């Protein structure tokens, strides 16, 4: 015969597991013995009563059952039975991330499905109690990122734009089979690419200058903004598409500030009208630029 029994993973040494019982028509004294399946001495059996109890619980917990072969003998005849002990795995541990805040980065503008990072939480329980499932508990964040429930691999759900959001704080839950969970935040920095040209505050600039304006005096300042970061966001100014050589020698521009200055005495040009263009170019690779008329 086979005895099937279940035992809590929280069981302690000395706890009864089950009772095996045999009858002898001759009413002889029967003796019980575990003859196989107990190499680690996890169980012991009382030789007269047939009570099986726990002895060494160190190796008790495991997904597969412990199968014991038990004999009973009256000194002449021997019979055998099988005892199958299913251990209900204990949930002693909560999933644990290595840190409650993790760092990652991803370049802006990359396609959906771009790899970001992989999160890992450890759970020392066995079986389903130790299986960790990862989720993102935020509707907004799920629209931007995806986490694989089994592996913890995080990818993008859409292209990211650094100028809209340079940093995302992504919450991730790790939950085991018994419902215990841990929480970590993945800070995803969106790194810049040169995808924005400088933008002038105005498409055209108009001004008048006095014929008495002194040489090297600034009379107009243009300004352009580049929303990119780093060198790609640094703007330099230049004058181009000049109408004539005299304009080239008459006006200059500070490449860093955008201040336009007079290079020659203006009196000789009194009453005249000049038009030229100012270019604002960034330092990205390749550089982007825009123009404004003056």
**Helicity, in percent?**
under 10%
The number of domains is 3
> Per DSSP, what share of the residues sits in E-state strands of 2 or more residues?
35-45%
Average pLDDT over all residues: 89
Structural class, from helix and strand content?
mainly beta
Under CATH at level 1, the class of the largest domain stands as Mainly Beta
Per CATH, what is the topology of the largest domain? Immunoglobulin-like
Shape summary: rod-shaped
Radius of gyration: 40 Å
Sheet with most strands: 4 strands, mixed
Treating each run of at least 4 consecutive H or I residues as one helix, how many helices? 2
pLDDT < 50 stretches: none
Distance between the termini: 102 Å
CATH second-level architecture of the largest domain: Sandwich
CATH superfamily of the largest domain, called what?
A: Cadherins
């Amino acid at each position: 015969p086979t005895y099937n029994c279940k035992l809590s993973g929280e069981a302690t040494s000395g706890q009864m597991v089950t009772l095996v019982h045999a009858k002898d028509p001759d009413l002889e004294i029967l003796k019980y013995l575990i003859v196989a399946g107990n190499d680690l001495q996890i169980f012991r059996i009382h030789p007269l009563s047939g009570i099986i109890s726990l002895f060494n619980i160190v190796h008790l917990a495991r997904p597969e059952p412990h199968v014991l072969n038990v004999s009973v003998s009256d000194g002449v005849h021997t019979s055998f039975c099988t005892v199958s002990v299913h251990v209900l795995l204990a949930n002693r541990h909560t999933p644990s991330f290595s840190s409650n805040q993790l760092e990652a980065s991803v370049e802006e503008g990359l396609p959906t499905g771009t790899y970001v990072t992989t999160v890992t939480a450890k759970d020392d329980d066995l079986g389903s109690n130790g299986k960790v499932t990862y989720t993102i508990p935020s509707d907004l964040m799920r629209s931007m990122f995806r986490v694989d429930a089994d592996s913890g691999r995080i990818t993008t759900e859409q292209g990211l734009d650094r100028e809209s959001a340079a940093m995302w704080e992504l919450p991730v839950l790790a939950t085991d089979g018994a419902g215990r969970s841990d929480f970590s935040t993945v800070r995803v920095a969106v790194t810049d690419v040169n995808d924005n040209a400088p933008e002038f505050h105005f498409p055209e600039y108009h001004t008048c200058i006095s014929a008495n304006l002194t040489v090297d005096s600034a009379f107009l300042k243009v300004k352009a903004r580049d929303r990119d970061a780093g060198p790609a966001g640094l703007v330099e100014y230049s004058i181009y598409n000049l109408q004539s050589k005299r304009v080239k020698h008459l006006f200059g521009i500070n490449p860093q500030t955008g201040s336009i200055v007079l290079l020659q005495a203006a009196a000789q040009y009194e009453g005249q009208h000049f038009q030229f263009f100012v270019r604002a170019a960034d330092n990205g690779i390749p550089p982007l630029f825009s123009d404004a008329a003056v």
